[in-house]
Amino acid sequence: MNEGLAIETNVLTKQYGQVRAVNQLSLRVPREQITAFLGRNGAGKSTTIKMLLAITSPSSGTGWVLGKIIRDASQNREMRRDVAYVVEDKQVYSYMTVEQMIRFARSFYADWQNEKESRLLKQFQLPLRQKVKALSKGMRTKLALLLALARQPQLLILDEPSEGLDPVSIEELLQEIINAASSGVTVFFSSHQISEVERIADRVCIIDHGHLRVDTSLDAIRREYRRITLSFDGNAPPISPSFPGVQQIKTSGRQIALLARESADAVVELARDMHPTSVEVTPVDLREVFLETVKES
Amino acid sequence: MLWYKAWLETRARFVASLSTLTLFCGLFVHHAVGMMRPEWKADFNRLLYITQEFMAIMWILSAVLLGMGGIVHEKTVGTSSFTLSFPVSRTRLQVIRLGVGLLEAVILGVVPWMVICAISWGAQMPIRVTHVGLYPWLLVSGGLVYYAMAVLVSSLVEGEYSAPAIAIGLVFLSTIILDSWFRRLDVWRFATGDFYIDKKTFELAGDFPWLGTLVCTGAATLMLVASTRAVQCRDF
């Protein structure tokens, strides 16, 4: 286990019958950074998170969270003292009131932050006496966030946190995540909202069909990925699918579009041997990298 | 606070069951206190035995309902991941849930009989606790088998309605099978007192049923341990 990592997995695999939900995943999430975990529905994001927290047991492989091995029940329980998890559908106990819910969660953590609890209660305008079952999904999400943030975790895991929130609440949520990260909390969150990820994440991991496809920093994506479009007079010539330095190739009529990583200049040089009439190099945003990554597989 | 959670989770079912059972017993005996005369002793004892039989039906259904819930049910309603993210072992979650359920089951078995004693005392024809104490004892110790059966089903079967439906089905099926082919093991007859009551005097015949109590609580314990093991091994 690398001390600089909050989460590390080693060929972590989860098999449900014939289906491999997570396939030999080796993930590395650095401490005190915001890491986004992207993937399509059913890609294996939630299963990975559940394995980290021992909610689901891995079929093979292992992992460490905050230095504790996830397959050891007592170490995992110890680790969960320092981890806050906001679940995907934000369901909490419908038979409790907001106040009872807070009292219940507070009882597990000696370092519960009463000031933060009061501040978030006021900010989120949560009605203390109201039953959870009477709350809207947005309010339930805010309650789940309050329960996660007020315990002052070392690691905050959020599974699609902005789902069901209005734009103002999303803004508040993103600000809270940034605030948490700036106070030393490691944030690991899954999301389908690429724009949110681009705003707050330091690193991005993309998972597809249980495989980790991309694990890099957002800066590296901006710096290294390029779209190279080659135009020809006639139909585009055939191109080797293993064109060096190219992650993805798309041929359409008179054009060939290449997605290059790290070596765009070298790819352009090689591409010139195909005698295109023009070569256009454009930067690529996270949305494109994500779409190309998951389409490709 | 896990006790508090388990209590809040079962509170509505428990209060509804307790109210129904207590009301039923209270009314039944209120109308019957006049029968408690020395010359009608056997008739009154028979009435208490009938009360026990009716109460056993309602108590067992209530115990089955109290046995529902827990972490597998939480998976159905979507809160299991939230619960399991707390720094608590699954064993502790299950044991506390069982502790609260057992306490509620005992209260459901004892309080109605206390009400019966109180009403008869109010009517100045007190029933001695030593006289009826056998009934709640048999009801709770025998009925725990049904409670444990319900807990085991709720730890194995997902679904809001399928778990209680299967548990209630099993109660009836096991009673029919045991009564037809293995009468000595019929928990229903144990819980109502049928095995131990003299059908002429409707009082305890023979020794106190320690062995039956031991067998029933042993069987219940085995099922509760199996349910805890099932929860430990399960993916959520």
Describe the protein's architecture and organization.
The complex is a heterodimer of chains A (297) and B (236). Chain A is of the alpha/beta class and 297 residues long. In chain A, the strands form three sheets. Chain A has a six-stranded mixed beta sheet with strand order 7-8-9-4-10-11, sandwiched between helices. In chain A, strands 1, 2, 3, 5 and 6 form a five-stranded antiparallel beta sheet that branches. In chain A, 33% of the residues lie in helices and 30% in strands. Chain B is mainly alpha-helical and 236 residues long. Chain B has one domain. At the A-B interface, helix 2, strand 7 and helix 3 of A face helix 1 and helix 4 of B.
Give the termini distance of chain B in whole angstroms. Answer: 22 Å
Number of strands of chain B: 0
Using CB atoms under 8 Å apart, which protein chain pair has the greatest interface?
A-B, 30 and 21 residues
Query: How much strand of chain A?
Result: 25-35%
Helical residue percent of chain B?
A: over 70%
Which structural class do you get from the secondary structure elements of chain A?
A: alpha/beta
CATH fourth-tier homologous superfamily of the largest domain in chain A = P-loop containing nucleotide triphosphate hydrolases
SSE sequence of chain A, one letter per element: EEEEHEEHEHHHEHEHEEHEEEHEH
Distance between the ends of chain A = 30 Å
What can be said about the biggest beta sheet of chain A? Answer: 6 strands, mixed
What is the number of independent domains of chain A? 2
What is the averaged pLDDT score of chain B? Answer: 89
Total beta strand runs of chain A: 15
The Rg value of chain B, from CA coordinates, equals 19 Å
CATH class of the largest domain in chain A: Alpha Beta
Mean pLDDT of chain A: 91
Number of domains of chain B: 1
* Order of H and E elements of chain B: HHHHHHHHHH
Oligomer: heterodimer
Q: Give the strand order of the largest sheet of chain A, numbering strands 1, 2, ... along the chain.
A: 7-8-9-4-10-11
- Tell me the radius of gyration of chain A: 22 Å
